[in-house]
Known about the structure:
By secondary structure, this protein is an alpha+beta fold. It has 5 helices and 13 strands. Strands 1, 4, 5, 6, 7, 8 and 9 form a 7-stranded antiparallel β-sheet that branches. The protein has a two-stranded antiparallel ribbon with strand order 2-3. It has a two-stranded antiparallel ribbon with strand order 10-11. The longest helix has 13 residues, at 2-14. Mean pLDDT is 69; it is low at 8-49 and 173-228.
Amino acid sequence: MDAKLSHIGIALLACVVVGCSSSQRTMNPDDDISARNGFSGESTRFVQPEADQADLVLAMSGWLDTPYRYGGSVKSGIDCSAYVQLMMQEAFDIGLPRTTQDQMRAGDGISKNSLQPGDLVFFETGRNQYHVGIYLSDGEFTHASTTAGVTVSHLDDYYWKDRYLEARRVLDRPQSSTGRTVASRDRTFEREKPKSRTESTKSVRGSSGTWTSPGKSSTGPPPKKTGW
């Protein structure tokens, strides 16, 4: 834990993510169960200030070593899709769906060699079992592991390298003060401008419902067992 925070402190002082390495690479299995319903899409331009990269590291540092809990979304236990939803909300003020299934449909598909900080990375950990994390830099990503809890791992670790599935980009620079749109092939997730200064949570709209805050599922009934 101390080694991780020390490394994160160096990254913050530099105001850019340049390694964000944990004391050792995690190579343990992780399985977030979700029905696979993904697709590919055109890559969008990624323009993100260095300050936002530091915000991601800062947000992550407050959750390191939080234990994994299937369906959880709090400090006492969290699963991978809830962790990704919370980090993207806290670091970038962008709302994502709660489930891995819906997160796999957000943004645009990109190649592995085009990864930038804040991109979502997905893994196939078993039959109809999928896992999601957030790319940092230099091949590293942060995620909620079933064995290590919230941690940092490397894409080239033997477990993750063989199970890498795809990456998606949901971040770009806002085009106006009224919000921005992140489009996918079959739906559009729109960031809405808060109605007041005290209303800081953006929402994400999809064809199946609206998500308004981290840790909450869509307005419709949640999947019985898949998608967490």
